[in-house]
Amino acid sequence: MTFLKRVGMQACVAGLALAVLPQMPATAQTSAPAAAVTASPDEARGIARDAFLYAYPMLFNYKTLYQQAVDPTSKSYVGGFGKFRNYSRPYGPENKEIVTPNNDTPYSWAWLDLRREPWVLTVPAVPNERYYVFQWIDLFTYNFAYVGSRTTGNGAGHYLFAGPNWHGDTPKGIDKVFRSETDLILTLGRTALNGASDVKNVQAIQKQYKLTPLSAFEHTAAPPPAAKLSFPKWDEAKATSVDFIAYLNFLLQFTQPPAPSERELMGRFAKIGIAPGAPFDPAALPADTRAALEAGVADGKAALADAEKRTTSSFDLFGSRADLKDDYTTRAVAAAMGIYGNTKEEAVYVGTRVNAEHQQLIGSQPYVLHFDKKDLPPAKFFWSMTLYDLPARHLVANPIHRYSVGDRTQGLKYGADGSLDIYVQNKAPGANEMSNWLPAPVGAYDLVMRIYGPDQTVLDGSWTFPTLQKL
After folding, report:
1. Cβ distance 180 to 162 under 8 Å?
2. Which range is most confident: 165-169, 187-191, 315-319, 407-411?
3. In sequence order, which residues have a C-beta less than 8 Å from that of residue 410 and are 6 or more positions away?
4. 3-class state of residue 96 by DSSP
5. Do residues 156 and 288 both lie within one domain?
6. Which of 344, 359, 376 finishes a domain?
7. Nearest-angstrom CA–CA distance, 376 and 297
8. Does 254 lie in the same domain as 360?
């Protein structure tokens, strides 16, 4: 799971807040009239609540898009659309711009604009012992495609990604075609890193990841350019107010035609001015209508907060539209708690912040985490457990520079019976336990385990994360 600070923060990349205009043009050639608000105030409030929950993940997806692909002054700018930005250096306690950072699989980020033509992802042959994956995410935040060790294998390949309005046949040389519901899409690549000494090997693989327009791949003439876009600047305060409708309208133009399951929903949303590419100016609304919309947004925020409190597992938060079954509250919770999480068949995230007595874990109290041989994390690829301080959720500085342990940790010692004990505490344990020490801060912390390629026992709940026992 990739965790985001929802106010002024981005997972794996730094955040940026800029001003936004009340009315936001969709594209250079679009001059759609403002959609009329036809709902009564009472009806508008209920629609606004549901529309805010629907829009929430799209809004924070757009935040990432704007910072990574549009705003060259952002620290997280990848260079625009159609370009990879690869990360390969392990994170340390000094990296404060992200939360719950992942040192297992450095990222390769890229955004594609599919309006003009499809794009081709080219991957090299990756050594069989090294896990890698490209997760593909549409504007709705659905995981609509996977390329990598689990789904397509570690061999070299060419994979085509097409938008909703492309209807061509599979081109020669393409191993598989993936179709997106939206014209703007994101890929989040991950390549397994086996410690700092492995960085150069990861970099060598990342340099071979390529994105190519279909015409360039086929050495043919490119289609006419798509209309130039005028992207609304990101302003988090406005995006989480009644102005969310303006952002949503901008994004909806890249989701045409709408999914069949959403046609009736879009008709309902239209009653409060939601329409693809339509301007929206809340200042032009009657006072009672605007007040109703504002109340609806507040209702949506309250519903989301309540749903978050009741969510205890990431297993069913992420996936395709078919996986989530158009459950927009769950989709919003996923974005709020950890946008861009993997589909559970790819990876799951489990852990705890409490001990066997349901007390908050603190480093001044030594603990042992015991796994019987039969209960070791069942991972097809690998597993890793990382410790983060609370409430900041950063890595913890320590004398041995160890921030996680897992089945790839060098020097980890197993018992004669194949069991494994991990010692979690602030002060160094005895000499016999040092090899299995996961250093903790003096105060509160959280443990997050990532299981890549979980087996069915993880997915059905028969395998569970063990409790920490006091020493």
Report:
1. yes
2. 187-191
3. 195
4. coil
5. yes
6. 344
7. 45
8. no
CB contact at 8 A, 107 and 188: yes
What token pair was written down for 84?
A: 């990879």
CATH, residue 25: 2.60.40.1610
Residue 337: per-residue pLDDT: 87
Tokens of 147: 């390329």
Instruction: Let me know how long the chain is.
Output: 471
Q: What is the mean predicted confidence (pLDDT) over 173-183?
A: 98
User: What tokens appear for 254 in the block?
Assistant: 């890249």
Q: At what angle do helices 287-309 and 328-338 cross, to 10 degrees?
A: 70
102: closest CA among 380, 335, 393? 393
Which residues on neighbouring strands pair with residue 382, listed in sequence order? Answer: 452
CA distance 37 to 242: 13
What amino acid occupies position 14?
A
- Torsion from C-alpha of 436, 441, 445, 447, nearest 10 degrees: -20
Q: Are strands 445-454 and 347-352 parallel, antiparallel or unpaired?
A: antiparallel
Q: Which residues lie across from 447 on neighbouring strands?
A: 352, 387
Could you read off the pLDDT of 290-330 as tens digits, one per residue?
999 999 999 999 999 999 998 877 788 999 999 999 999 99
**What's the burial of 183, exposed, middle or buried (CB within 10 Å: 0-12/13-18/19+)?**
buried
Q: Count Cβ neighbours within 10 Å for each residue of 253-277 and write b for 16 or more, e otherwise.
A: bbbeebeeebeebbebbbbbbbbbb
Do 353 and 384 sit in the same domain of this protein? yes
Query: Which residue type sits at 107?
Result: Y
Nearest Cα to Cα of residue 424 among 377, 373, 463, 466: 466
Cβ atoms of 260 and 287 within 8 Å: the answer is: no
Domains held by the chain: number: 2
